Amino acid sequence: MSSENNIRVRFAPSPTGELHIGGLRTALFNYLFAKHNNGTFILRIEDTDRTRFVDQATENIIKTLNTLGLGFDEGPGKDGKVGPYYQSQRLEIYKKYCDQLLEQGNAYYAFETAEELDEMRKLQELEGRQTMYDRRARDLSKDEVDEKIKSGIPYVIRLKVPLNEEIIVHDMVRGNVKFETNLVDDQVLLKSDGFPTYHLANVIDDHLMEISHVIRGEEWMTSVPKHVILYNAFGWEVPKMAHLPLLLNADRTKLSKRQGDVAAEDYIKKGYLKETIINFIALLGWHPGEESGDKEIFSIDELIKLFSVEKVHSAGAVFNIDKLNWMNNDYIKNYDLDKLTELLIPFLKDAGYDTSDTVKTKKIVGATRVYLNKLNEIGDHIKIFFADDAVLEKEEYKDMLITESSKKVFTALAYKIENLSELKADTWKQSLSEVQKETGVKGKVLFKPVRIALTGSEHGPELPAIAEILDKEKVVKFLRKYL
RNA sequence: GGUCCCAUCGACUAAGGGUUAGGUCGUCACUCUUUCACAGUGAAAAUACGGGUUCGAAUCCCGUUGGGACCGCCA
Q1: Among residues A122, A257, A349, A481, which one is catalytic?
Q2: pTM of the entire predicted model
């Protein structure tokens, strides 16, 4: 379903590890924007840094995107005539355009070593100046350049930033932003290993891939003038830009490993539902506004319908795990029980529980889902359904179980349950109320010991549900244990 | 330090010249449930500060303060 219009956006991660929550948010907003406008969502892999390349990272990113329902229209394995979508496979293209820049006088060769540049920066810092390339190779003569190249000195190609100009960019989130070119670094465009830097590759690819809107994180804001200079040098139209507010740690610094997990996959693994993740992330830095009222829960389709860049905030947003947990619990409580059970089975198996009895498993899920903030917590709540013995949580509970009234109740109840044709929630209730009448024991004195006898704990799911799941044999056994 | 961005309850946010500044999470209280949880009701809780503009400012402008991002042959 490609574009009838020309809306084309891309998510362009570099394969240096797992998909970060911040990256996921960028991907999501690009996706929502594309789908809302009936445009095209493109995945491009920016693998131009050989030193940070991580094997399988691309596969993982694609997998995570797919798991969360953010499938791309064009990208690796899905050609849309503007590929390849791996930058490492586009080296000749960058080389060609870089040569053009050189010819036009928009770029130049530079021969400093890393050490020399370090020294330069240290000095600048000492003098309290902005650290940036001092443009010392800008005016090397053609002969000097040729000679250095011939003698095998490694070189990079740098952008020749036009001096004394002002660049004004319109950002869809932030409005007009002004930059002085004198403060813009003569960015390296082509590294000494022949690979392009982000800035060169990004601009060329966005143009060649006909990207209409660049939607990316705010950390890119300060490199915008470099990109504009490049677009201008090539004589290309600058795409529309939108810089998204950062996702923040609790201390309001850029979201990073430290405070907790930042890999989207970690959240999936813990059992945050994909609906939750999408819903929650969408509301970080964006809100549909007044028309949607007090609504907090949005399906992906609703998000697509409602999304607009104009409603994106300009301030950073703290990633708040408490609200994520609440939202996940809300989804879990309202999820289709069969589907939820299906999702929970791997977690149950992980926790070492037998899930072969699907009817029982479903009942257990139904009885305990309300406690779950995430699926991997299921193991903490279901021990009682599989134990061969109701181990007392606290030693002193025993006193309650061996009183005269408890014994009376257990005896009567065990007898009734034993003679039930089937132990269900309602037959349990029926039996218990009969016992209440017959023994005259009621209230806390009745219920508490029974609960403890069956589960070993004062707290837990509803007693009738527990009884039904445990079934006759165990219930009777547990009740008679204290006689 | 330089450049750029940002500023409504603790957090996410609504209101975009006129509202008792609204909602959600979290917190607290109460109700319900013979448990916990769920659910329901309610409470505390914010326009950073100072100047303008205006009849009227959270909203527009300026300044201050505070926070953040970037300043790599990383992306």
Answers
A1: A257
A2: 0.94
